[in-house]
Write a structure and sequence with these properties.
- The chain has 97 residues and is mostly helical.
- It is 55% helix and 7% strand.
- It has a two-stranded antiparallel sheet.
- The longest helix is centred in the first third of the chain and has 24 residues.
- The two termini are 24 Å apart.
Length: 97
């Protein structure tokens, strides 16, 4: 059985890997895909999903990071998010881990 410290390290390592992949994917999407409609959800675009991911992370940081002194990044307008927006620079949670 894993010790609590090893489990914490395992969870943080998994989160960091997931975070790097998510940032890489979003920041390397071709600009023309940002307006693409999502199959099965025609009112949603890739831009809106990227904004949702960022805003959800802001919510979790607000809920869980405040007590650890992690500043909450600004939320974004999902319908106006610019493809040049840097998730890496705005991702305070990743920098804190």
């Amino acid at each position: 059985m894993s010790s609590p410290l090893n489990l914490l390290d395992t969870i943080l390592d998994a989160w960091k890997t997931n975070n790097r992949v998510t940032i890489f994917l979003i920041e390397n999407l071709p600009a023309e895909l940002w307006e693409a409609r999502v199959p099965g959800a025609p009112r949603r675009t890739i831009r809106m999903i990227a904004g949702h991911i960022h805003n959800a992370r802001c919510m979790w940081i607000k809920t869980l990071g405040k007590e650890h002194g992690i500043a909450v990044p600004r939320s974004v307008d999902r319908t106006r998010l610019n493809p040049k927006f840097s998730f890496q620079r705005s991702n305070v949670a990743a920098q804190a881990c």
